[in-house]
Known about the structure:
Layout: E1 20-23, E2 29-35, E3 38-41, H1 42-47, H2 67-70, H3 74-89, E4 102-104, E5 109-111, E6 119-122, H4 126-136, E7 153-155, E8 161-163, E9 168-169, E10 172-175, E11 183-186, E12 190-191, E13 194-200, E14 219-227, E15 229-230, H5 231-237, H6 245-248, E16 251-253, E17 258-259, E18 267-268, E19 288-289, E20 292-298, E21 305-311, H7 319-327, E22 338-340, H8 355-358, E23 366-367, E24 373-374, E25 382-391, E26 394-406
Amino acid sequence: MSWIDIPNDSDFSIxxxxxxxxxxxxxxxRIGTRIGDIVVDLEAAADTGLFGDIDIDPDVFESxxxxxxxxxxxxxxxxxRERLQATFADENSILKNHPKVFFKLEEVQMHLPVDTKDxxxxxxxxxxxxxxxxMFRDPENALLPNWRHLPVGYHGRASSIIPSGVNIHxxxxxxxxxxxxxxxxxxxxxxxxxEMAFILGKDTELGSNITTEDAPDHIFGMVIFNDWSAxxxxxxxxxxxxxxxxxxxxxxxxxxxxxxxxxxFAKVEGQxxxxxxxPYLQYSGLHHYDIQLQVxxxxxxxxxxxICNSNYKHMYxxxxxxxxxxxxxxxxxxxxxxxxxxxxxxxxKGSYGSMLELCWGGKREVHLDDGGIRKFLKDHDTITMxxxxxxxxxxxxxxxxQTMILPAT
Length: 409
């Protein structure tokens, strides 16, 4: 379907056309898109006149973050995406005469795609919340009384969001042994959390709110989100105000922002919410997405084991409900703000989106293909998350977010 060679199993088919920030051999950060294993320089593409009849300032493509591009609004950003799809399918494309527009994947470095002022993490997977409740509270009443009535969330640390390929050091902090006073040292129970995050595409004023009906117009696109968690630090610190140092040391994201328009075909029905939610959380239409997710664990000098196979469709609370709840009190939002789903777990053991659940709080072992065993993560382990939606001949994916754990400093 394109004059560009696209592998059959590529996440970056002509149906995708995501946006991100890259630098090539020139070292300059700029906006690009990806098709197959080719990165396309949108500033150079604009210089050819490709977007000449679209009402967008070509200087936008020189930005080192996507925020100015997103600010153009969906009418413009969708027009750019559709023009790219059309030119990649056109054997007579003007871009064929401009090879400097294209870079091989191995020639580029990817960077954070957006300037994120605020980041919120939700807790919206009923399977995950139930598992945690069974492990740490009453198995008969695993969910707290508010859980089915509102999308539980907390404000995270935007400054420590990092792109795929940036490795992290094992965090340090206070922990509390069962039989003694608090101690300080490296985290012993380091964990990943498999999440998706959506990126906001409009600013709002303080005191305003977004309805579930209007929410889709405020959501630009999505990334895979690994919300790292120091379980032992978090366990000691979180009462009474919730996550702090156990969560703020790092969150890793996939570098390409996949637009909501590219994921339109992946919409599915969500599970029935019981009891019925309050009117401001009610919605119409399809707002859950069938996105297959995987987590791979690779020990140092060894091979990767797929330890989790899950799906974003398992979420109980969807994005429009999360955004409506977030703003119902008048909280304002900004372009580039990120809102993460919370750990995505399915109903089966192999679909649990964290080591905490896979090892059931340390009571079980996770067996690796090389014969190794894990309960929580070790130094020099690499965690890679993958995600894609597929239907018929369409495949739209996110690539990967990959991070190695380095020893504590």
